[in-house]
Specification:
146 residues; mainly alpha; 5 helices; 75% helix
């Protein structure tokens, strides 16, 4: 969602700054989480909290200009979502305006797609490692960690 609202990795103050919109969206999602919690709707509450956390994480990543995070898989998932949103926005903006993408937009799109390749690979092999670790643990027990 954040990638759809904030189209670039650069911080811009003034007229083109949409960080406030992303922050308001995060606040709305946190409020929804609270309402769902009081209504004993656990799944919508958890989904709202997760979406708010992801949006805030993406907003901070885009603000600070981080390229790739590999420290935790939730950060990787957030980066995949914000990069995919940014790439989608580049394509949609040109399509809605019925024009060809500029050289800059093509370069940004290519960079985003290259970044997505790395991120999806990291994300995929994290889950492959989890599966293989669980499978090995079922046969070897604690020796799996050796």
């Amino acid at each position: 969602l954040c990638g759809l609202v904030i189209p670039k990795n650069a911080l811009h103050f003034g007229g083109k700054s949409f960080y406030g919109v992303a922050l308001i969206g995060t606040s709305i999602l946190c409020t929804l989480c609270t309402v769902f919690s009081f209504s004993h709707l656990r799944m919508p509450a958890a989904c709202s909290a997760a979406c708010a956390s992801g949006m805030q994480n993406a907003m901070c990543t885009m603000h600070l200009g981080a390229v790739v995070r590999t420290t935790h898989v939730t950060g990787t998932a957030t980066d995949i979502g914000s990069t995919l949103g940014r790439a989608t926005m580049i394509v949609l903006r040109a399509a809605c305006e019925r024009r060809r993408r500029s050289n800059l937009e093509n370069a940004e799109l290519e960079a985003d797609l290259n970044k997505l390749t790395v991120l999806v690979t990291i994300f995929t092999f994290f889950f492959v490692g989890c599966f293989l670790g669980a499978l090995t643990h079922s046969h070897l027990g604690a020796w799996t960690f050796v």
